[in-house]
Write a structure and sequence with these properties.
Number of helices: 5
Shape: elongated
Radius of gyration: 23 Å
Helix content: 25-40%
Structural class: alpha/beta
Number of domains: 2
Order of helices and strands: HHHEEHHEEEEEEEEEEEE
């Protein structure tokens, strides 16, 4: 379910502002003080925050049917944005006197706490030589030739990593790949029908799983596909993006 499209909100606000300014300049109708009009700008984040609050409780549809989900990341983001809009709107309208520095002094430490928690959570992955580190550079793993996929960690800092699993040889049991992108990006290509499960979290970034994206100030969601009873080979993904992005998509 989509409650309100953010693009439509901004479009409607800009359209109304343009019409009011045109009428004001042509001396048609009530004269508008631009400063008085601008004091209502916090209504925009307030509406968007309420929209994200509704969207945090929803359902996704796929080949395995419709599934209900709760996006804790989108829920936290909505609360922060709603608080932001309410604080500035109330202050602009004179409903209360609030030092906005207090708001930001609470938000930024909270974001740092969430970043630290995001980096610490998840299963520790250690293996001999598996994984890749990319710092201010780019690298590619896999390709069209068969190669053995092992559990490992992939870390991109202001760089990028591309992982191609289309020809990967996967051992029986569970293979864990841990993905961390900080001010960078990681892209994983998987063949159609590959059993995958895992979870992704984002802080000021985004995580996309087979076209389903979650992100913003805080984002996070569990995902799984092509799971069936008796699955012998399973890839578990632990993805986190901090001011960056992680995308898992089917190879074309």
């Amino acid at each position: 379910m989509r409650f309100i499209n953010g693009r439509l909100v901004f479009g409607l606000v800009i359209l109304v502002a343009g019409v009011l300014l045109l009428l004001n300049n042509l001396n048609i109708g009530v004269q508008i003080n631009i400063r008085d009009l601008l004091q209502y700008w916090p209504v925009i984040p307030l509406i968007l925050g309420l929209n994200w609050l509704f969207l945090s409780f929803g359902s996704s549809s796929g080949v395995e049917g419709s599934k209900a989900y709760f996006s804790w990341g989108q829920f936290i983001t909505s609360l922060i944005v709603i608080a932001f809009g309410a604080v500035y709107l109330g202050r602009n309208l004179g409903l209360f006197d609030f030092d906005t520095a207090i708001f930001w002094n609470m938000v930024w430490p909270l974001i740092l706490i969430l970043i630290g928690f995001s980096l610490l959570r998840g299963r520790s992955v250690t293996s001999g030589g598996a994984g890749r580190v990319s710092i201010m550079s780019g690298s590619k793993v896999g390709g069209s030739q068969p190669w053995k996929l092992e559990s490992g960690s992939y870390f991109a800092l202001m760089g990028g990593i591309e992982i191609d699993l289309t020809a990967a040889v996967i051992a029986e049991g569970e293979t864990v790949i841990d993905l961390t992108a900080i001010m960078g990006g990681i892209e994983v290509k998987v063949p159609p029908g590959m059993p995958i499960t895992g979870e992704g979290s984002a802080i000021l970034g985004g995580v996309t799983f087979l076209g389903q994206e979650d992100g913003g100030i805080v984002g996070g969601r569990r995902f799984e596909t092509n799971l069936a009873a008796g699955t012998e080979k399973l890839v578990r993904v632990q993805a986190r993006a901090i001011m960056g992005g992680v995308e898992i998509k089917e190879a074309r």
